[in-house]
Structures are given as structure tokens and as C-alpha cells.
């Protein structure tokens, strides 16, 4: 066939400009070369695969099964006689670090630390130093951390401090569900538990991660949170201790959990050797600066009498979970005689969760929630969702207090009437309900209930009272915080781009 006028055989021209095999398109712009286009296509496809694989399995939330409801009815939460365990609330960050160090320093046989996030900052190194000293004297140590923070913070892959621990003969460090982009359907299921067990006689469980925001008095930023210390005089006597040990064993033995750098040869490396020396020096320094942290404690005097402690837990796999903890907490609350008060850093609920809250409010005369105000919330997703759905939360009938004192509140606790108290890791959000492993202790103790109420009341003195969607009462002497332009801009961006994914936040 004869070539058209103005077109050269073997090449492509349009409007006198060469493109294709070429370098310019019809508008004279340079075209991307085929290898670059192919690479960009592959990367886009990979991104779509990861995002779709991570999101789609969790779009539909499981319902509560008949088996879960029947199992709940068989549980005992109220017991009239004193039990074998005692408990104390840990409300202060410094006390929370001190009691962890004390338990670790007094342990003789084994230590278990399970935490969502473990950093090598100041308080993190305090804990590392104590764990190393315990392992050096023959204590068996097991550490379990979640895979997402380890991947996100880029600490574990090459950090010599963690390698000091993982390479020790008496320490095993495992990662729950390590991040693997090739298996995106596992990415969202995380380990959110936080507890420390020492010698099967005492443990600390609550909402604190293992780094400076939650432990000690380091740096300018902190979060407020709660722990409970549980103690029994003889190993094996505590029912909740045995339940927690069984729970840990089930999680630890999952194929999801993988030992990290369990290689003694790492100890000979220069960076690891230096890190070990630094931790040994740090432990000596802690003993000199805080000698009272290392002396025996009269736990009988420090703790309160308890009738019973029940451990609530979510399923431990990494897929979409049946909302066991949320169901059991709200079912307990529905059966209160007159009052329920609960604290949560943020509240992100679907329709079923709001319905459950409405049922609690319909069954109990006085139901009050304290959460961060949008301006005070350290979680931008939580702040965004609260602004958007506060009116729907109010429609359930719950009273709302907004903590607004300038420090983000991270506490997860509740009291039911004058006997039951709950402390643990569960946030009132869809992630805690459907995605993460979660633990809550429900404690039957009049004295502990009084202690927790007193601590909760101190925070509630620094709150705004939400009357309705348009009215918030500010106590005398307080000035309500206002979100600055950067926060409002971020809120708008998140609402536009991430509002659809609230079940993952």
C-alpha cells in the first residue's frame, strides 16, 4: 500500500511530530519509554493487589455466634467469697515502669512480655536492661511483639539492642504476624495485647505499650493509661493467671508467630557487644537512681481483696474476628443495676456497635462515657470520626464527657455499679472489635472499684460536658481547646480519602 502524503513509511508522524518508537506525542510531549511504562504498570498492579488484599477481607464484619453467647452465660463475674488473687490499679506512668522493673528484677524462673509496640527509647531500654539481667541470672524470658510496629518503626530489622535479647540463650523474641506484602490479607490482624508475667505469681495487664509515651517520665510527650497488677501468694493459685498463661501459650504456638534472629553468633558482633555493655551499665544506673524499684514489695499490703477476675479475649487469628470482647463487655453493662461509666481514647462504631450501646443505655439509668475531645485526640483518625459521628453516638442515649486537658488520654476502663471494674487494651472502635487481639480483665472487688472510680474522677474533672450536638458545657477555669488550621486540614483530608475505611482505623 502506498504511504499517505506527509507520512513516512516505517515511522509514525502526526502534525509533523514524531512519536511512538519515538520520543514525542501529538502535542510534542515526551513519551515514557516502554520499560518505564512497564515498571510503572507493575508497581500500580502490586499496589492494587496489596490494598485490595488488605481491605476487602475486612469489609464485612462477623456476627456474634450462638456458641459465644452460650459461653458467656456460663461465666461467673460475681463471686461472694474472697478469691486467691489480689489486685491494684496502676494509674501513673512512673509507677507503671517501676512495677514492671520490680517484677522483672525479682523473677526467679520465667518472664513473659507481650506488647503491641516495643521501642528502644529510654523506658524501652530500661525494660531491656532488666530483662537482660534476669536472663543472665538464669530466668527464662519470652517476648512477643506485633509485626506492624516492628516493620513500621524499622527498629527490629537491624537494631543491636533487640539483637542482644534475641541472641541470648535464655531469651526468645517472637513476632506476631510479621508484615508480608505478598500476603496482604493478613496485614490488618494485629496483636494488641499488653501484659507482663513474672514467675506465675504476679502480672501486669492494661493498655500501656512499652515505650516512653506510656512508661516513666521521659520526654515532653506522654499518654495517660491504666494497668492492673494482679498477685497471688502461691504459684498456680490464681485463676486469672492460669487463664492468661493458657492464652499466651495459644498465641505463642500459632504459626503466625516467628522467632526473630535467634542466633547466638550475633553476640560477637561489635554493635551487639556495645549494646550489651550499654544495657548492663544502664541496669546498674537504674539500681543507683531508683533503689526502691529493686527491693521486695509487700503486695499483700499494696493490693486489694478480690472475689473473682475474669479474662475477656478476642479470637487470636489474624483475620476478621467475631467481636467477642465487645459483646461480653456490653452484655455485662446491660445487666448493671444502676450505673455504667467507661473511658475510651476514641470511639469508632458501626451500626451494630451503636445498637449495643443503645441497649445498654435503655437498660441502665446512668451511662456515661469519657473520650478525648476532637482537639485533644492524639489519633487523627479517631478525631476525624468523632467529629463526623458524634450526633449518632448521642442518639444512643449515652452521656459524653470530652477530656480536654492537653495530653492525649489512652485509657481503656469501665466500672459497673460498685463491684465490677474493667481494665485492658480494648478501645471502643471497630479495629478492637473485629481486627485485633484484645484483652480486658473484669474484676469483682468493691475496694478496687472505689480506687478505679477515684482515678477516673480525676480525669473527669478536666472534661467538657456534651449536652447535645450544638452545646458543650465548659467548666469554670477551663478553656476549650480549638483545632488549628493544620488539624482541620488533616481532618478534611482524612474524611475525604479515608472515611470509607473507618473499620480499619
Automatic annotation (TrEMBL):
Any one Gene Ontology molecular-function term assigned to this protein's record: phosphatidyltransferase activity
SMART domains given in the database record: PLDc (SM00155)
Statement: the UniProt record of this protein carries the keyword Transmembrane helix: yes
Compositional bias of kind Basic and acidic residues: 14-26
Alphabetically ordered keywords of this record: Membrane, Transmembrane, Transmembrane helix
PANTHER family according to UniProt: CARDIOLIPIN SYNTHASE, CARDIOLIPIN SYNTHASE C
Protein name: Phospholipase D family protein
Source organism: Candidatus Eisenbergiella merdavium
